[in-house]
């Protein structure tokens, strides 16, 4: 027993000695294993982006260096670099002003900033002259082949980058800066780079220009010759489908994989949701004077209703009435109304706007101004109806919706045919407009003009934060289709509005 106690004492001294000599460090919580990024079945080594201004990084009504850096393709390229992606070259503008010159003559304005000098923030072009000269052709190739202003069929049009045709409106100044040859095509220059992966977001302008012009263009459905289209026309759906298939066929010919996005509902962007249909304030005297002035028009409509020339429903729609207060609807021209000028030239196609009409963002520059500076009563939108270019009527909105649905059906079907990742930008931007998207810090990105964080000051193009949200949408689709694992973009790292 004595031997056992002695042995235990020795062991006790041993343990005490170990405790004194060795410090036990608490390792803390287990650290997660680092994420292993992977391209899955895709190959990101040579990435080329095709598209229009949305691809280029256009923002605040211009293309400029910071906007190009914050383009969604550049964000994608940064993510791809973690999974075998290569360098991504951008045809940078010469400065952060954004203006373009041709032979020294300005042909495109600078980016917009908010001016607070009048107390109410107003978007105005930043001062100075942009130094990007169109005729100074850059040496490529460039991975970002986003061409502001391009419609679908422009990507396959020879000469679209001919500097000599820019002044006449026959060529695109942004493509002229980077075209490999005056007769080159955007698609040809993109395909020549041997892309292993590509993105395509095209077709927005096939709808957008019609909408932003207040439906002043023509629906070209049935016309298969896009060389005869006007700048604000809606593209024929068969032309769109043919061109889109050609683009995908060309880009995938060498085995490239890719991602495509559909076209958003343009009527939900701030360009159409900022200016109300009833922004006119009137006092009692002015309202009474206007009602007296429109009495003959209203009476003439009733007379023609009695003759059966017009329905009671249309008469009710066309009756014009003002009242004292801040919420009087503007008077507009509407080409879809019955033409009554054969009966009386004074009975032009005018009515007051309703909540179903969408006034363009640019209409605020004309509402309340004088059509005739020498006549103080010639107030645009009140005594003088707003022209077609300032309003997108319900009938015109339906034309936009039909075209968008046709184009999106083509995009979805061809994405499936070619086995490409598909981004439903339409649904996503609809969510931004309707409920907003909550960020990691609890803030919500919406489509409210200037303060929502999702769109830039032109009311059409996303802000850098908006582009970051879209980049993540693209990454989601790519991971789903190709089994990739890619790092995400942090939208909060990008501004929702440039402040200078």
How would you characterize the overall build of this protein?
The chain has 500 residues and is an alpha/beta fold. The chain folds into 2 domains: 47-272 and 395-493, SGNH hydrolase (Rossmann fold, 3-Layer(aba) Sandwich); 280-352 and 358-392, no CATH class. 32% of the residues lie in helices and 12% in strands. It has 15 helices and 18 strands. Strands 7-1-8-9-16 form a 5-stranded parallel β-sheet, with helices on both faces. The termini are far apart. Mean pLDDT is 93; it is low at 1-22.
Give descriptors for this structure.
500 residues, alpha/beta, Rossmann fold, 2 domains, five-stranded parallel β-sheet, three-stranded mixed β-sheet, globular, disordered N terminus
Mean model confidence by pLDDT: 93
The CATH homologous superfamily of the largest domain corresponds to SGNH hydrolase
Note the main sheet. 5 strands, parallel
The percentage helix is 25-40%
Strand order of the largest sheet: 7-1-8-9-16
Number of helices: 15
CATH topology of the largest domain: Rossmann fold
What radius of gyration results from the CA coordinates? 30 Å
Low-pLDDT windows of residues: 1-22
CATH class of the largest domain: Alpha Beta
Structural class: alpha/beta
How much of the sequence is in beta strands? 5-15%
Which geometry do the CA atoms define?
globular
Q: What's the CATH architecture name of the largest domain?
A: 3-Layer(aba) Sandwich
Report the count of strand segments.
18
Number of domains: 2
Write the layout of secondary structure elements.
Elements: H1 2-21, E1 47-51, H2 53-56, H3 65-69, H4 72-80, E2 100-102, E3 105-108, E4 112-115, E5 122-125, E6 132-133, E7 144-146, H5 173-176, H6 186-191, E8 197-201, H7 204-212, H8 237-252, E9 257-261, H9 270-273, E10 280-282, H10 284-293, H11 295-306, H12 312-318, E11 325-328, E12 331-333, E13 350-352, E14 358-359, E15 391-392, H13 394-417, E16 421-423, H14 425-434, E17 437-438, E18 444-445, H15 464-482
Parallel strand pairs: 1-7, 1-8, 2-6, 8-9, 9-16
Antiparallel strand pairs: 2-3, 4-5, 10-11, 12-13, 14-15, 17-18
Helix pairs in contact: 4-15, 7-13, 8-13
Organism: Robiginitalea myxolifaciens
Signal peptide: 1-19
GO molecular function: hydrolase activity, acting on ester bonds
